[in-house]
Structures are given as structure tokens and as C-alpha cells.
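Quick review question:
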């Protein structure tokens, strides 16, 4: 039976990346029934919102969505579609792996980190207002329920994937109540995994320094929303940048898979953009759907193409276009399938 999946191409470079990723996933041998839904700047004039209700209903109905990048205006305009999706659908866990890829020149080898970011509260709750004409106030929300839930997700992920350690990241030395509650919640959950998964905590600024000095010391990190956003970009920088950084937003009723990077509108339609992050997000989706073998084959094919270097996009050091890069991965998938048979 085919997996019915909502596909949101996004805007900017999103449609090109979505087309490349869709073709690669279709070539994996897994059957998909794609329900394409448009969201973002392109639908504002028609619906008065970048995220029409019928898009949300599609995700609720199908339980799984693959989403390309969507532009978020800076400083004004509509609120982030990504944040709205996470809060509206209760996508409480943001999973962002960062793993070295052979063939990408970086300062580090063998980085293998997983960022688990709480996705629904903290300063991203969007509770802010002006205090007179010259000051603004933003309210930080941290709850025990959400903190314990994301901590348990991180520990369960570590157990299920053979990881060794979870590090809680916070600023409880300064924000003693809010971040203090987050840390306390993580410690409470960690006690249930004692003897199976190691637990430690780090102050967020020190964590950033530690990651650029000795990333090999860390494994799974669990963080409140804002720190998770920042630290996940830092970790992406350790392995080659946002162009190779996948993401998953997991909830109880639905899950949305998307790249970490933005929509890069100046490159739209040029067949230059790198689809690696969205393809790897598709790999996370395959694992979520229980298609473990296909996930391994797609990720291996992608990594092989990058390692060989003959058919990579410009940002990866090559001159192949978005579609050509996908073609090379599809060809590699066909080769590996033939070898396996």
C-alpha cells in the first residue's frame, strides 16, 4: 500500500528541491501517493494567509508531510509558517541530525550529533508586545509538561538508535526559574534511564564553545526552542552548512519533515540549488514510516554521489544542477538495487 504524504513544495528554491526529492524517493522502491499543497508567499493573494486551512487539513488527514522551504519576512509581515505549523499541529519535537559527509571539506571529521529541540514554547510562543513607543517585551514560556515531554523524546530516541548520552543545554545560571525548570525536568526524566543512557548538562554558551573545540564528546542534545534553533545551525556548520542539514518535526497526530535552510529566492528557477537537506529530510521521513531499508539505500546513494564529486551542485564544489544531482542519486539507487538482487 502506498504511503499518502502531503507535499508542500514551498517557495523560492523550494519547488525545484521538492521535485528532485520526490523523484529520488519514488526511485527508492517505496510507493507514495503525493498530495501536493501550496503554501507560502505565492498563496497570500488568493487566501489572505501563507498557510490556508486546507493545507493544515491535508496534513491532519495524511499524518505525514514533506515540506520545502518557505520565506519568512524579517521584522514585519506574516508570522513564520514553520512556527505556525509546529504550534497548530502540536509538532513538539524538532529533530536535527548533523553528521559528517565524505567529500565535503570541513574542519572536522566524523561528527555525529543529534539536536532535539522543544518546538512549541519558549520565546517562540510569540507572546510579545510594545511597552510604549520605544520598548518591546517578549515573554518566555517554559512548562514542566513540555520540558519533560521533549526530554523523554530525546532519551527514547537515544535508546532506539543506540546512542550513548543525552546532554541538556540551558542557561539556568541566569534564568533560574524558566531554564531552571527545564533543567529540573530533564534531570527528572534522566533518572528513568540511569544505567542505560548517560546524562549531563551544559550552559548554552559553554556548549557552543565545546562544540567547536571537541564535538566528538557529544551525542544527543536536548534544548529549549530558541537555543535549539541556534545550536542546530552551529552543528550544521560543523558538517558542511545548512545545505546538508535535514529536519523533522514530530507530533502525536502528525509529523512534518523539512530542511533547516531557507528559501533563497534569488536562486529560484536557476537549477542551481542543492537538494541534499530536503532529500535527507525525506530519509528521516522514510525511517518514520518504517521504511528502514529504503532510508539506508537513499542516504547511502546520496553520500556516494557527494563522495565521488562528479555530479554535485555548485555549493558542494561541482557544476551539476539540481535536477542532474537528483538524477545521479537515482542512477546510484538503480545500481545498488541491481547489485542487491
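Suggested answer, residue by residue:
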Amino acid at each position: 500500500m502506498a504511503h499518502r504524504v502531503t507535499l508542500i513544495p514551498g517557495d523560492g528554491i523550494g519547488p525545484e528541491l521538492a521535485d528532485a526529492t520526490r523523484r529520488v524517493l519514488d526511485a527508492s522502491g517505496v510507493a507514495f501517493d503525493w498530495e501536493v499543497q501550496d503554501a507560502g508567499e505565492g498563496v497570500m493573494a488568493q487566501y489572505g494567509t501563507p498557510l490556508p486551512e486546507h493545507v493544515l487539513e491535508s496534513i491532519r488527514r495524511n499524518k505525514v508531510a514533506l515540506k520545502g522551504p518557505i520565506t519568512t519576512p524579517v521584522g514585519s509581515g506574516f508570522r513564520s509558517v514553520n512556527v505556525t505549523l509546529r504550534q497548530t499541529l502540536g509538532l513538539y519535537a524538532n529533530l536535527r541530525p548533523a553528521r559528517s559527509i565524505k567529500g565535503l571539506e570541513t574542519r572536522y571529521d566524523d561528527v555525529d550529533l543529534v539536536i532535539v529541540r522543544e518546538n512549541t514554547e519558549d520565546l517562540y510562543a510569540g507572546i510579545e508586545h510594545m511597552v510604549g513607543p520605544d520598548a518591546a517585551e517578549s515573554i518566555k514560556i517554559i512548562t514542566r509538561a513540555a520540558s519533560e515531554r521533549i526530554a523523554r523524546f530525546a532519551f527514547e530516541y537515544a535508546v532506539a538508535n543506540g546512542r550513548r548520552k543525552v546532554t541538556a543545554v540551558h542557561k539556568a545560571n541566569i534564568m533560574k526559574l524558566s531554564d531552571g525548570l527545564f533543567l529540573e525536568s530533564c534531570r527528572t526524566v534522566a533518572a528513568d534511564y540511569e544505567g542505560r543512557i548517560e546524562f549531563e548538562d551544559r550552559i548554552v554558551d559553554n556548549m557552543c564553545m565545546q562544540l567547536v573545540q571537541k564535538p566528538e564528546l557529544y551525542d544527543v542534545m536536548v534544548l529549549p526552542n530558541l537555543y535549539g534553533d541556534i545550536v542546530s545551525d552551529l552543528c550544521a556548520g560543523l558538517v558542511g552548512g545548512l545545505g546538508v542539514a535535514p529536519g523533522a518535526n514530530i507530533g502525536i497526530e502528525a509529523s512534518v519533515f523539512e530542511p533547516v535552510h531557507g528559501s533563497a529566492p534569488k536562486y529560484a528557477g536557476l537549477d542551481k540549488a542543492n537538494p541534499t537537506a530536503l532529500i535527507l529530510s525525506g530519509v528521516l521521513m522514510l525511517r518514520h514510516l518504517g521504511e528502514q531499508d529504503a532510508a539506508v539505500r537513499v542516504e547511502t546513494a546520496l553520500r556516494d554521489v557527494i563522495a565521488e564529486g562528479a555530479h554535485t551542485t555548485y555549493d558542494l564544489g561541482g557544476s551539476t544542477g539540481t535536477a542532474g544531482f537528483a538524477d545521479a542519486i537515482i542512477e546510484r539507487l538503480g545500481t545498488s538495487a541491481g547489485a542487491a538482487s
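Why it works: The mean pLDDT is 94. The chain is about 40% helix and 20% strand.
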